[in-house]
Amino acid sequence: MGDTVSHTVGATNVTPETLDPQDWRALRALSHRMVDDAIDYVAGVRDRPIWQPMPDSVRDYFDTPLPKTPQPLDSVYRELSENLMPYPMGNIHPRFWGWYMGAGNFTGALGDFLAAVVGSNLGGGDHAATRVEQQLIGWLKDMVGFPATAGGTLTSGGSMANLIGLAVARNVQSGGQIRETGVAGASSAMVFYASDQVHGCHRKALEILGHGNTALRKLPTDGQLRMDTHALRRAIAADRGAGLQPACVIATAGTVNTGAIDDLRDIAEICREEGLWFHVDGCIGALLAIAPDNAWRVAAIEQADSIALDPHKWLHAPFDVGCVLTRDREAHFETFTLDQEYLQKTERGLAAGDWLYEYGPQTSRGFRALKVWMALKEHGVEKFGRLIDQDVAHAKYLAALIEDETDLAMVAAPTINIVCFRFDPGQLGEQHLKRINTEIMLRMQESGFAILSDTTVSGRHCLRVAINNHRTRQSDLDRLVGEVLRLGRDIA
Q1: What does the pLDDT look like over 25-44, one tens digit per residue?
Q2: Are the CB atoms for 331 and 166 separated by under 8 Å?
Q3: Residue 415 Cα distances to 75, 201, 254, 325, 354, angstroms
Q4: Beta strands in 145-275 (DSSP E)
Q5: What CA–CA distance (Å, rounded) separates 314 from 287?
Q6: Is residue 264 within 8 Å of 295, Cβ to Cβ?
Q7: FRET pair for 288, CA 20 to 30 Å: which of 43, 60, 316, 432?
Q8: What is the per-residue pLDDT across 237-262, written as a single tens digit (0 to 9) for each?
């Protein structure tokens, strides 16, 4: 008879671990404190410096090594209260006018919190979060005049939205074969057209898509810094004559430098005549379509084949959330869909819903829609339209203040809500003026008074004020002009 070996199975002294707290009551109390502090933080934003340099002690804090052992959550929160909250970028402040960012809203922040609590992956499936995103995309389509049958997807921002739009454009213009053969298999090289004011993300997009920067034709602009459509027609004809394939026109509805809006109606007509894809980069200005006094500025945007826009700008959603809309939903789907055995749609159950990842490159997708959805439900789209008109009116008001000052000079009159001007008392060379105005900008930032950016328009360096801020008041603009004059005269 052989030896008998017995085994004891399943008996261990190891306690199961989890990331849930041992004391939910203590977490509740701390969470309430965080919300109270957050409300005070936003409510008191006008009373704090917009930005301030971090001291060495804070920089050193963020260089500490990887934590290996636990630390009480209230201690972690205390450290962040001391080292993070006093040193923001500042874009929720009423005098943040640098670059082009929305000012956020507290309901959106709560939406982000709830989205994180639910924890859903928006790659797809039959659950409520996917329906929220699909409903929001439907609302955005309605805002810009797209049909309900159009497609769309949420993205991290405008750069990704534009990339997806151009990917769909080149897939359609290649007849769909480019997904299989790549650009090397195309019978002729594709060409994309934009103005010389186009955002740099388009160059990146064409590089990522394999076309390279040489595929992007940057056309001259007219006196209002809009694409010269006569130059567009000539460029298309010349490229066709050279054996190239004109594929897509990228019109800009709100350039970064000045807010200029290309002639969308004329470009739409050219695209129809020439058989080109009509893409609108509307990350700055597409949502003018909901503004009662300014919707006319983007007339014909509804004729686009694809539109990129940013709810984290004029819908003031907390960062980040962008969107691309496509007139041809099926073409959008065919650009990204894959038949994968591990993501098969079923008739019933969780996998019975739409797989939203099939409209872009990301399989794992965050629940970005909720913060926008909640704010729209709370305030209604009409209020956001009025806020857009308010920003445009503020830009006109600032321009009038500048025109009244002999030591200030307008460099580009505002089309919408971006004002380009500089301190210029006369008798000073261009390089001297650049040094003075750069110093004005930096001193304002370092004092915590206001955030401006700078740019160069038609060879002239200037300060740039992008008023994309529902907290800005006319009194803030009065103070801005006074501070520019004070600093300029002191520096000069």
Answers
A1: 999 999 999 999 999 999 99
A2: no
A3: 49, 22, 9, 25, 41
A4: 151-155, 190-195, 216-219, 245-252
A5: 7
A6: no
A7: 43
A8: 999 999 999 999 999 999 999 999 99
Pairing relation of β-strands 408-412 and 190-195? Answer: unpaired
Q: Over the stretch 316-366, which tens digit does the pLDDT of each residue have?
A: 999 999 999 999 999 999 999 998 888 888 889 999 988 999 999 999 999
β partners of residue 195: 219
- What are 268's two structure tokens? 């739409």
Vertex 11: Cα angle to 8 and 16 (nearest 5) = 155
pLDDT of 345: 86
What is the C-alpha separation between 121 and 205, in angstroms, rounded? 26
User: With contact defined as beta carbons under 8 Å apart, do 108 and 92 qualify?
Assistant: no
Q: Beta strands 216-219 and 190-195: pairing type? A: parallel
**Beta carbons of 219 and 251 less than 8 angstroms apart:** no
Cβ(466)–Cβ(450) under 8 Å?
no
Side chain identity at residue 397, one-letter code? Y
Q: Quick one: which of 369, 330, 366 has its CA closest to 139? A: 369
For tokens 């350039």, name the residue.
Answer: 255
**119 half-sphere exposure, CB direction, 13 A CA radius:** 1
Query: What number of CA atoms fall less than 13 Å from residue 130's CA on the CB side?
Result: 17
The residues pairing with 216 across neighbouring beta strands, listed in sequence order, are: 192
Output b/e per residue, 435-470; b: 16+ Cβ within 10 A.
ebbebbbeebbeebbbbbbbbebeebbbbbbbbbbb
Under 8 Å between Cβ of 351 and 125 = yes
Tell me how many helices (H) and strands (E) the chain has: 16, 11
Q: What angle do CA 270, 276, 277 make, to 5 degrees?
A: 110
Distance CA 265, CA 7 (A): 80
Q: Would you say 465 and 452 are in contact if contact means Cβ atoms under 8 Å apart?
A: yes
Query: 112 CB contacts (<8 Å, ≥6 apart)?
Result: 318, 370, 371
Q: How far, in Å, CA of 239 to CA of 234, rounded?
A: 9
Vertex 192: Cα angle to 189 and 198 (nearest 5): 150
Q: What distances in angstroms separate CA 232 from CA 84, 180, 229, one per listed residue?
A: 48, 31, 5
Instruction: Give me the residues paired with residue 423 across strands.
Output: 408
Residue spans of the chain under pLDDT 50: 1-6
Residues 6 or more apart whose CB falls under 8 angstroms from that of 294 comprise 288, 388, 389, 392, 416
Calculate the CA dihedral of residues 67, 69, 75, 76 and round it to 10 degrees. Answer: 40
Tell me the β-bridge partners of 277. 248
Q: How many CA atoms lie within 13 A of 166 on its CB side?
A: 28
User: Residue 246's beta-bridge partner residues?
Assistant: 191
**474, 397 contact by CB (below 8 A):** yes
123 CB-contact burial (10 Å; exposed 0-12 / middle 13-18 / buried 19+)? middle
**Other Cβ atoms closer than 10 A to 96:** 26
**Tokens standing for 353?**
């819903």
